[in-house]
Amino acid sequence: MRLFLIRHGETEWALSGRHTSWTDLPLTENGRTQAMALKARLAALTFALVLTSPRLRARQTCELAGLGEKAVVSEDLREFEYGDYEGLLKSEILAKAPNWNIFRDGCPGGEMPAQVVARVEKVIARVRAVNGDVVVFSHGHLSRIFATVWLGQPIMFGTQLKLDTCTVSVLTWENATANLQSWNCR
């Protein structure tokens, strides 16, 4: 069983580095091109389950990758809720809270890491119950937490997992052991 974890394509805010959770931005033209390139890459694969975040950018990526008709929307795959930090650059956040780390501190007015972990654990339980490959279309911080939980690592491990837009990462489950097969691949 393999889990294909796909971060959505480029948006204006992803390009500029703005934190985007509930703000429902569409893909840029480049983001649409990135997502369409996934179609050929995924065409030879068969998925027993296709899950997507409810956010437009993830749903558009899924559709342009050719899997929109099979997709099931999961609220649990929405991005980390940034609360008061929505739309801010990391430099702007650090000016207010110099030692801030989302994986440790969460976001005022938004979610704490434990809340995101609880959502991810529900999705992982659903995925592990499936017989066959699964693909998930989601977001940057959520995907980093997803991999961290999948691998049974402390939440701070997510700080070490850089993830670009419209990349494919593959998580596996082999002999009762969680594995990271590939990460941040174009």
Please tag this protein with its features.
single chain; 186 residues; alpha/beta; Rossmann fold; 7 helices
Task: Summarize the topology.
Blueprint: E1 2-7, H1 12-16, H2 29-42, E2 49-52, H3 56-64, E3 71-73, H4 90-96, H5 102-105, H6 113-128, E4 134-138, H7 140-150, E5 168-174, E6 177-185
Parallel strand pairs: 1-4, 2-3, 2-4
Antiparallel strand pairs: 1-5, 5-6
The domain count comes to 1
The helicity comes to: 25-40%
Main beta sheet: 6 strands, mixed
Secondary-structure element order, as H and E? EHHEHEHHHEHEE
Give the strand order, joined by hyphens, for the main sheet: 3-2-4-1-5-6
CATH level-4 homologous superfamily: Phosphoglycerate mutase-like
Tell me the structural class.
alpha/beta
Low-confidence stretches: none
Overall average residue pLDDT: 97
Distance between the termini: 21 Å
Radius of gyration: 16 Å
State the shape.
globular
Percent in strands:
15-25%
Count of helices?
7
CATH architecture: 3-Layer(aba) Sandwich
- The level-1 CATH class: Alpha Beta
The CATH topology label is Rossmann fold
Number of strands: 6
